[in-house]
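Person: I have long wanted to understand how a fold can be written as tokens. Underneath my words sits a plain record pairing an amino acid chain with its backbone structure tokens. Those tokens are not coordinates but codes from a learned vocabulary of shapes. I should like you to check that the lines agree and flag anything odd. The protein I mean follows directly.
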Amino acid sequence: MPTSVTLSTLPRRWVPRGSAREDLVHSLARTLQLPEPLCRLLAARGLGDAEEAKRFLRPRLDQLHDPFGLAGMEAAVARIDAALRRGEAILVHGDYDVDGIAATALYTRVLRSLGGRVEPFVPHRLADGYDLGPAGVGEAKRIGASLILTGDCGIVAHGAVAEAARHGIDVVVTDHHTPGETLPAAVAVVNPNRPDCVYPDKSLAGTGVAFKVCQALYRARGLDPEALWYHLDLVALATIADLVPLTGENRVLARYGLKLLGETRNPGLRALMRRSGLTAEGMGALSAGQVSHVLAPRINAVGRMGEASWGVRLLLTDDEAEAESIAERLETENRNRQALDRKMLDEALALLERDYDPARDYAVVLAREGWHPGVIGIVASRVVERIHRPTVLIALEPGGGPSRGSARSIRGFHLYHALRACADHLERFGGHRSAAGMEIRPERIEAFRADFNARAREALTPEDLAPEVEIDLELPLHRADEELYRLLRHFGPFGVGNPSPVLAARGVRVAGSPRVVGDGHLKLELSQEGARLGAIGFRMADRLKEIDRARGAIDVAFQLQENHWNGRVELQARLIDLRAAG
């Protein structure tokens, strides 16, 4: 297949994100005394009721749900409380991503503050694999633990839970991933996605579930819950990094946690922010984007490249010098991960050029020896950005042993359900709608590829395979001003489920000479009826040829943001898409 077809920017359809009834817009404007564009955005996002809109714009901690509404919570709290009272050794077992690392740190800090004998453990990605398994059970036996408490894992670890029981070790599973047909035979299982759980918010991250367990434990012990609020920095970090919807309870947890991150008491987080170019002092609330693009990748890097325990040590240390040393290690690992990421992406794109047929392949499965199992998930996401297809990358094991794969999806295709339908080809798998992991034998890959593609063809239409730009508001360029930016900030934190509003301005001219800056970024200035706005399109250098002032005006889709440069702060448009004015 020609490179131009595989790697070119796919044409995107511009569609409204939602529709706003005019009566709701006017009612909100009257009741809330807010500008019409903001009320239109609220109504289009399903927030046409004034009280609901107020709760969204001003989330409060008293909006959090009762933790005992989670199925299994009473049994979990009873067993953890008994372990604390009897002085039992507790192994806190997390996963090796940011969510699992943060859940491990949260449980360890909270239970130690209550006098618990607690040891944290996260598996080594390459040596141990993911989830609660033999390595975790072995570590519990080594330290003499009589209780394993999981965070962000364990929901499908039936064998490991049974093995622990054979050694007299109880297991309390707290997780958020999709359960299998049966729950593991643990002392307690807390997961909002249990089929029998009526908890109103199903989208908590693993650390969010852990926080609810800590809340319930504090209440059962008659303790002041205020001490727990200081751990919301960890909850926000994990919630944003794990790409769960920033709506409902997650929105409250992330909003307050981001405020705490700016003034965190955690020495490891402070050191990491300094090393990564963010500063806590006087900074106030961090943005969700700074967490997802700056902090989270550095913690994820140690888990992806091998030793996730360094991430746990960073979040648990109270020694400033140790925190600085570990933060530097994470910085180095992240640079190594970035270099490997680029190399593997080039190799994946080369495979696409050779074998990918967009008319045939509604989903893509790529496999290669030499790929790092810890980085294939990132690269799978990059491939999805290029071709807008569900994508699986498999790091083939030398010698033909079971190989690890990582999958990423698009809207309209539930990965976990598809993998469950293809389970006959897989050794094991786990995950959720948009991301998943698996193990597969090399000889099963071709059959899996065909089956997985067939599932995608059943679930997706050709229209689903055309990427969309969802437009929140159309407005003339002069309305994209500082006042609108200030008001839009109340819609944050932005992320999955609550994306940053995308604005569209039609019939805009390009002033001056557009140019390429940095690592393939497009820089230009927009102009319309006397209004001017600087704009940048990240990794959009290839769109420069589409901007020909002699051909007239363009339509632009963009997000408003502040550009901080050399001590100056300017409003700018972050380009999402552009095209000739229609």
